[in-house]
């Protein structure tokens, strides 16, 4: 993938579906651009066996830590809990974890249900994008659980 001046852009590709003959039906292209608001930038996609591209470099990293995952983007560092009432364990100044419940809902009778993280899973990862799926439920003090939740966190 190049811009109109022929400059190569960082690119990661993922085949999402193929035709019965094995050819690509759906292809996901991940790239990163710096654009101003409402800016239009024509791009060119080059394909074929004779095309090569450099491997993108990235600060994007995920690692397992005690009780969860640590994500580093270069601009953001965040620790996600794999269990308990707080999804975000620690994050640099972008997110505040002040000791209060991070997710709560109340029913029509005023009963409060606290969001509980039950699982973290890295769904997708490449040099340009990381998707973490967090799931859990809302639970009252008496153990009742009226609903579940899923959140997908996209890091670039």
Summarize this, please?
This protein is mostly beta strands and 156 residues long. It has strands at residues 2-3, 11-18, 24-31, 43-44, 61-65, 68-72, 77-81, 88-91, 104-106, 112-125, 130-139, 147-155.
Counted beta strands: 12
Q: Strand fraction band?
A: over 45%
Specify the overall morphology.
elongated
Mean pLDDT: 88
Rounded Rg: 21 Å
Straight-line N-to-C gap: 18 Å
Task: Indicate the percent of residues in helices.
Answer: under 10%
Helix and strand composition category: mainly beta
Low-confidence stretches: 93-97
Spatial strand sequence of the major β-sheet? 5-6-7-8
Describe this structure in words.
By secondary structure, the chain is mainly β. It contains no helices and 12 strands. A 4-stranded antiparallel β-sheet has the order 5-6-7-8, with no helix packed on it. Mean pLDDT is 88; it is low at 93-97.
Short key terms for the protein model shown above:
mainly beta; 156 residues; elongated; four-stranded antiparallel beta sheet
Task: Describe the secondary-structure layout.
Layout: E1 2-3, E2 11-18, E3 24-31, E4 43-44, E5 61-65, E6 68-72, E7 77-81, E8 88-91, E9 104-106, E10 112-125, E11 130-139, E12 147-155
Antiparallel strand pairs: 1-4, 2-3, 5-6, 6-7, 7-8, 9-10, 10-11, 11-12
